[in-house]
Amino acid sequence: MSKVGQLFSEGSSEHCSGDMTKRSWVEKMRIVLQAVTYDEGEQDKALRLWELSKKYPDASVDQLKKLIEESPVMPRRNVDDSLGTRVFSRDELKASTMSGSEFKRLNSIFQEMGVWIEDKKEQAIVLTPENVQLAKGLLDEIATAENLRIIKMAEKLGHSRFSRTPLEQKKPSESTSSTIKTSGGL
Amino acid sequence: MDIPKLDHTFRTMLQDLRFGTWVWAIHTATVVLWLINYYFEYSFLRGDGLAPTRPGLLNVIALSILNVGVLYYLWTRIKSSSIDYAARIKMVAVSSKLGDIYSTTRPLLLALEELFDKTLFAFASVCISSLVGALGYTVLLFGTLMEISNLTDILARYGGMASTIDAFWIKRLIFYGVNSILLWIFVTWSGLGSQRFYRMHEYRAQDYETEILLPRIREFAEELETEENVQALS
Asked: Contact A53/B231, CB-based, under 8 Å?
């Protein structure tokens, strides 16, 4: 496809219907990995914090912390960790954003790589604590790659103060002078 | 996990936009002055059968409204993305764990890709519409220069109104001249903006995954794509 053609298309060879099919496989992997590593309490706090920070843009960090404590809980989904494993139905992970054949491919690869196990009798996806750790590790790697891509995009715009290409200078897992060190990827 | 520093990126985008907005604000102010001037000229000269024509009046107004709308759209998009980014930073300050979770829910990369796509489209629209305006003003400027060079005959016919006719054409010379320059500056500014965002878009169209992703993730993605291609062929 020509460069001009790419401007007006999604640049994807996929032709199935649904929002998910417009995304790259890395994005699809990220969304599914995020679903299986879901932490209900923290996720709820994150969403409440987001809503509050929009509502009170000038609030200080301490004020926001206080507002979160006072705001009502809005649980999205329950995850039962009491048995040490997480169980999801295939439909729950597939949701409405992935076609059946796409999920079949993803399921096959993830099982092969040890991201999860499929309980065919119960028609469920099961993650042991080790599986969850592996999934979280993969999610971190994807987030790191996305951050590097953001830096490259800023460089392409010429709106960057970065004096070097991160990929030329460092491995993705290392810190960089063009980033703010935290434990959370944006 | 690291967070990319984007303060400078957002600040520079807003500064760029401020420049374009100023250029367009001056242009709009001159158009308003010209419309007021036109009203008085029309009232004054109509009695002598010399009512001035209105070269592209509706086009000028439509162009102004269109570009003001696009500039306002650009400003709100960039500003809200900048606030979004600042909120993410604050979120991480409140709790790095929360920031981490929120980022997986609403990745910054996707938010920026959407912003850059819309910015590219807005800059390209502004550039094309302003190019039409810039060409129009340039044609009017040269037309005015030609009229001024032929003024001798007209002044001989309307001797008593020499100063009025002189002022009539000099005002047009200034108006068309100033706006030709302003519009070409605007076209250049929006063209450079489009080019910059298109360059970034080209980068996005490349297979960045093989460049950036760690081998483990890349193997997953490649395997999934291979299976997909095999299924598509079969």
From this structure: no
Strand-pair category, A179-181 with B2-4: antiparallel
Asked if residues A1 and B215 have their Cβ atoms less than 8 Å apart, the reply is no
DSSP state of A71: S
Residue with tokens 């419309």: B35
Q: What is the pLDDT of residue A32?
A: 82
Q: Chain A: nearest CA to B32, how far in angstroms?
A: 35
Name the token pair of A182.
């935290």
- Contact A158/B at CB under 8 A: yes
3 state DSSP class of A88: strand
Residues 20-49 of B with CB under 8 A from A: none
- What integer is the mean pLDDT of B97-102? 71
Q: Average pLDDT of A52-57?
A: 75
Q: Are A71 and A52 in contact (CB under 8 A)?
A: yes
Query: How far from chain centre, in Å, is Cα B166?
Result: 36
* Amino acid at position B27, single letter: H
- Cα separation of B149 and B8, whole Å? 51
CA–CA distance, A88 with A35 (Å, rounded to integer) = 9
Q: What is the ipTM of this complex?
A: 0.70
Q: Using CA atoms of B194, B199, B200, B201 in order, give the dihedral in degrees to the nearest 10.
A: 80
Nearest to A37 by CA among A4, A81, A95: A81
